[in-house]
């Protein structure tokens, strides 16, 4: 037995001793069904969610709501479900009335007038209220266990009235308000299907429109650019019953590939056989229909596997995407062949825009993309003009070409060929068009650069003026984002523009290299003609403030969200010139159950000089002098960077009001643990190498630096440290236990532990296994399962749908640990995917985490 210089037993020996004590308990309770966490944690999980405030699009009202925490039951997940072509969906429409929603709702005038309470009947709940475009009315559903009723609240009369009640199903507010505010469309869902309803707001009545059942799997209905008619995807007439699986296979399943490299990342929920193909067609095939307000239904085209159509801004055309065979057993629906067409309102095909073939190749190299047209959309500022984006290098960044991408335009009536709008030297990153002003971006992942150009959107391919050229990984260097406001005339969000038309406005986090300053959000004005910026307002200590909305187009008055170390977040107005601040809200404590938790953003460095940070939480009532050093739990997720400077950025501010959320790992505070939340684990490319070339040593160095900091602060017991993470954080946990003696135990959730099972790339790794086998090998904790002696809890959803994290990853890791004499518990969560959503699952996971850490980490130091 090895003894540390401080006289305590070596951690590995201590863990082995604890296992002997704990294993009989673990075996006895392993199959006892769902468990619930301690009462203190259960009460937190059952409490209402923090209040939410949102600003109306006319910037005159704050809507403040308090809701239940939305949860799903395991019974709901057990509803008949299919997993096909990368999708998971219920085979019956969800008709349940879930009594979870808005508990209270209040309107606060921004000008300081009296508050208005939206009535919520006793024992009822509201759906989230939805403004009409004029911001004069709110529509919402009132839910009771027996029925849902559509209500409209009128701000002019400050009263609410019921429009329609529907006792036989669940109501949904999509597609919602028509642009003129006269109608509100919604669906009523029953076990027999989903029906379309339209309410006449002035008449106070609603009627069901006689269509076939809306296809709740493929998509629902939408207004035609905010106007009638409605366009819906419905199940075809005579659809018939679900195809039955044959009693015996019709033959072998055959796949082929000859000579052509087709790299594909690991995908889930793929089609497996011809029966899956039949099911896919049965549920995804739709009849596209047009539905008038008076109920007239027009069939558009033939039944096909449609995506929801996109209507042109003028409402005169539809962009229709049809998925067709051949399907694939290697990729999901998003890569199946697609034919994109422009249709007239009567369903006539005006133009076939592009026929994309099956896309099975998914290269991981940086800046690689699909060949051919990859994006087809309507230009939002013109009546009916398509924007077409395609690679000029066939999607291969290794090709030497003067221009990488091309954006073309094709306007109604779509005759002839598209015209070139712009070509970019790097990958096209998007363009925002506002009148004649266009903000064009191009990006290079290989060079870690992003540029923004101001261009004349009325002059195709005329070049532009460079506005920014920066490293997108670097928060300090990143420019701000445009302040937007809803424009009723165009029915879209546009940049707030000064009254004289000279300026746009930018807001951003105001990140600083100095961790003592932290983020200081700001508002700048950007002169459109020159690209010069001027600082108008910025958050200043002792507060952390951020811009929520501008109340006028010259930035004279703002709505801000303000908080400090001791003041919880609230909303204020600020006069920019005088700096006078007026309180708008007094919101309740977002987490009163953690009111005595001590929270602090801490910064520290690892030996290579990279600055790290995390949020340190100390449990309620903790007193360092009285309680001494605590058992600590670190919950993290590594990130990759191409530069050390970007990796050292510190997000957040020392002036923020830090209160734990209901995240599983933060609930450990109620059990007396200290928690270091999101201690940064940057993996940095050094000397031009890929970041993952130094993954293990940098990961271990980051974890040790965090533990050293907690020890230095006198709050963390380095001999009682646990570590955990989800997905890539679970992968991280396995590696830290395999390559260090820093932790007593680990919790790894939904991770991937064997990188040979993700051979064509993972995360941001651009190389395949065959290009960098030593990297894949060294990064795989499965490869070092014989070195993991600290107890590790593996948790995985049985139906994990995330790329690369098949449940087999945890199954094989468990077998490897068990076969090598490791200390491991493997928990499989029925019906859960990559994230855990069922109430029973989540509570059980918290119970597992508490029990595991109480057993293996919380124990006091053992004297020799």
Question: What does this protein look like?
Answer:
The chain has eleven helices and 51 strands. Strands 16, 17, 18, 19, 20, 21, 22 and 23 form an eight-stranded antiparallel beta sheet that branches. An eight-stranded mixed beta sheet has the order 42-43-46-44-48-49-50-51, with helices on both faces. The model is unreliable at 1-28 (pLDDT under 50). Strand 38 (543-550) and strand 39 (557-564) form a beta hairpin. Helix content is 13%, strand content 35%.
Structural class label? mainly beta
CA-CA gap between termini: 9 Å
What is the number of E strands? 51
Radius of gyration: 29 Å
Count of alpha and pi helical runs: 11
- The dominant shape is globular
Low-pLDDT stretches are 1-28
What profile does the largest beta sheet have?
8 strands, antiparallel
Helix coverage percent of residues? Answer: 10-25%
**Strand residues, percent:** 35-45%
The pLDDT mean sits at: 92
